[in-house]
Amino acid sequence: MDSLIKLFASLLLFFLSSLLLAGEINGVESSHHHHHHLYGPKKLFVFGDSYADTGNIKNKSQATSWKVPYGITFPRKPSGRFSDGRVSTDFLARLLRIKTPITYLFKDYAGKKRLQYGMNFAYGGTGVFNTQSTSPNMTIQIDFFEQLLGNVYSQSDLSSSLALVSVSGNDYSNYLSQNGSIAALPAFIKQVVYQTEVNLRRIHALGVKKIAVPSLQPLGCLPRYASTSFQGCNETFNALVQYHNSLLEQVVAKLNNETKQTAFAIFDYYNAFFTVFKNKGENPGSRRFETPLKPCCEGSCANVDEKGVKMYTLCDDPTSAFFWDGLHPTQEGWKSVYSVLGKNLTASLIKR
Ligand SMILES: *[C@@H]1O[C@H](CO)[C@@H](O)[C@H](O)[C@H]1NC(C)=O
Ligand SMILES: *[C@@H]1O[C@H](CO)[C@@H](O)[C@H](O)[C@H]1NC(C)=O
Ligand SMILES: *[C@@H]1O[C@H](CO)[C@@H](O)[C@H](O)[C@H]1NC(C)=O
Ligand SMILES: *[C@@H]1O[C@H](CO)[C@@H](O)[C@H](O)[C@H]1NC(C)=O
Ligand SMILES: *[C@@H]1O[C@H](CO)[C@@H](O)[C@H](O)[C@H]1NC(C)=O
Ligand SMILES: *[C@@H]1O[C@H](CO)[C@@H](O)[C@H](O)[C@H]1NC(C)=O
Fold it and tell me: Nearest residue CA, atom 8 of ligand 6?
């Protein structure tokens, strides 16, 4: 996929942007660099699932993301995010130096100023296919976006826009819960990646200039699927994830070739997760994430029994854990992933 020229261009752009990013990566808010704007995207449109949802699910009794202890780190109360705090969307917005885009749910309460950062259409629990009856699949999410074009967002608004397309595995957990056959999974993986391709094409055709699609994270390492003592990942699962990712890479290469521009970029969550597990944090030698596969919130997180007794236990310090619950990273986990990805992301996003 990478020609030498593209590689050289991205190295050059990375060099140009590394100064700007240095403050971000070290977590230092540097006002000195604040007003330098490279020609990076200034609007973020988000599609997908709980890895990117920042509060779209309306019925609060239906989602753990709206229940204690979700959100205890940020904003210190449940906010509809599936984490103790910020999620991928927040860290990507931060990297772009824009505010977290408003949720589709709150669009009617947002002023014009707030709408300028884009919009988040992601719903926890959803997939590219129907995985549940209560929230819209990605096709419907893109319909929502399309309906706003021409009134809320003009084509020129989209000229500096980025889409994040989060497909984190709900199609697979739903498939396995319905049919349970690992043997038939490869054929289904093809369908999921094909439908993802359809969605990517459509978002691009609607006018979004840059489209980022994360590689599938190592599902076999999620606490729910890892070994019982959280010591190791399920390699059967991860082999299937690698198959998904290899198909996705082919799709992105094909789309970039067809569009004659590098409009599509893969955010390599798969390798970034492993890098963070290995380093126990964003930097090698850190003491965080001592047992990286052990979640902070263990058990049936956010649920209480008939007597009101918690059906889960909470770790002392959520910043010490990579995973928040059985499926989702903590804020600190996401921060580390985006810190590892940071340099590459900026290079691929400002490339045009
Ligand atoms: C919200 O979800 C709960 C639990 O699934 C359900 O009983 C209730 O009817 C839902 N409320 C609305 C307004 O859909
Ligand atoms: C998405 O949901 C709609 C409404 O349920 C359905 O008609 C459509 O077939 C779904 N799309 C896919 C790709 O499954
Ligand atoms: C489950 O298997 C049946 C029969 O093979 C098939 O028709 C159905 O589509 C499968 N369900 C899913 C979610 O793939
Ligand atoms: C890995 O996951 C598969 C699918 O759920 C399961 O059949 C298998 O037993 C798991 N392997 C281990 C070592 O846990
Ligand atoms: C791009 O597509 C053309 C045909 O349209 C093909 O000849 C070429 O090999 C493709 N390049 C890559 C890198 O896939
Ligand atoms: C960053 O990009 C380089 C070159 O494309 C690649 O080899 C490396 O795996 C990427 N790292 C991450 C974390 O994505």
Answer: 344
